[in-house]
Amino acid sequence: MPISHIFNTSDDAFIPNIDDIDDIDNEIEEPKPSRKTASVWNYVNCKDPSHPGVPVCKTCGYIFSIKSGNSSIERHLLSKHCIVIQKVRKQTTLKFKCKNPWPEKEKLERDDAVVTWIIADQQPFSVVEKENFIKMMNVFDSRYKVPDRYQIKEKVVQEFNK
């Protein structure tokens, strides 16, 4: 049966329910919170009706580029209005438990075990850089930092020169 015959009856026609259609004109979008947290943005209006979305100086009405950043606005405020914006020099402190790597002796023991495994099972040096190998090693010992393939190669060469 041709496709044209399938939709020729009024029973098969798709007629949307008018109540299910959203009235786009009546929807009011909530304003998104601004990500501009630097104090320089207190001197700039980005919601000027004549220039929506474009930074405009509240003091003199200077229109900045839409791509203007903090430094450009700071220079304008300093040179035109003698307004100095203080730099915030606060370093973020991360609150998590530090995992110190193993001391050199314990790390060498673990490195030697990996080298022995690579030699005995004839694994390529690059195996130590594979994502799943690193994940496995982190499960066994989250403090152990796996050496890269170049370090492993040097250790294998040292092992054969013993």
Descriptive notes:
It is found in: Nucleus. One of its GO terms (molecular function) is zinc ion binding. This is BED-type domain-containing protein. InterPro entries: ZnF_BED_domain_contain, Znf_C2H2_sf. One of its GO terms (cellular component) is nucleus. Mean pLDDT is 79; it is low at 3-10 and 24-31. A two-stranded antiparallel sheet has the order 1-2. The longest helix has 17 residues, at 104-120. The protein starts with a helix and ends with a helix. The chain has 162 residues and is an all-alpha fold. Among the domains are: 39-81, no CATH class; 104-157, no CATH class. It has helices spanning 3-6, 70-81, 104-120, 131-140, 149-160; strands at residues 44-45, 56-57. The chain has 5 helices and 2 strands; from the N terminus they run αββαααα. 34% of the residues lie in helices and 2% in strands.
Question: What's the layout of helices and strands?
Answer:
Elements: H1 3-6, E1 44-45, E2 56-57, H2 70-81, H3 104-120, H4 131-140, H5 149-160
Antiparallel strand pairs: 1-2
Summary?
This protein is mainly α and 162 residues long.
Uncertain regions: pLDDT < 50 for 5+ in a row?
Answer: 3-10, 24-31
Give the strand order of the largest sheet, numbering strands 1, 2, ... along the chain: 1-2
Give the amount of beta strand, in percent. under 5%
User: What number is the mean pLDDT?
Assistant: 79
Key phrases:
162 residues, mainly alpha
